[in-house]
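Schema walk-through. Below, the input block comes first and the output block second. Nothing else is stored per chain. Lengths vary across the set, and this one has 221 residues.
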Amino acid sequence: MHRYVSAITKIFRQQADPLQAAGAKAYMRGQFEFLGLKAPLRQELSKTYMKTNLPHAADLEIIVKELWDLPEREYQYFAIDLLAAMRKYWKKEIITLFEFMLINKSWWDTVDHAASDLLGPYFKLFPESIKTVTDAWNQSDNFWLQRSSIMFQKKYKKDTDTALLATYILRHTRSKEFFIQKAIGWALREYSKTDPAWVIKFVASHQLAPLSQREALKRIG
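--- output ---
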């Protein structure tokens, strides 16, 4: 085990709470083990550790994949936070590591966390990669990649490429997958904070799943 991973596992395990762990595991439908660290505590432990301990950029992939291999979910959350903290060291090729994280141990918690803290910032840094990467994701057979292509702009506000968002949504309006229907609604709901008129017009002009439509219009009076 990389010494960086060994150190954070020791810190996290000292604060483990079996009762909280059982509740978190049940909430996630039994798919993952947990240490039982509540989010504020985990975030504080992570922030304190990373404040004086950031690894060499060359070791990032090894560290992230070791963290991803650990059974407790808190280590996957830490991996995302670590990558976000080391944004200034990102190179274009790091998208392959992000994709690894999206398609392994996939669930809404890590996928959406990555969309906000990794994918959105990455495509701001490397806008020339947007079309190639996200179009491939949107047309893939993996619905987590599809979800990521729809969600990566959720914090872009006025910088949202609405033509791209519309294209990616319209390819999946007939999807029966809950997480795709939810992603469509969520992406539209977030953009409605910036341009509600565009969202109203889009929803009125296209046949969306009821779940997508409800989510899209939730913040519009």
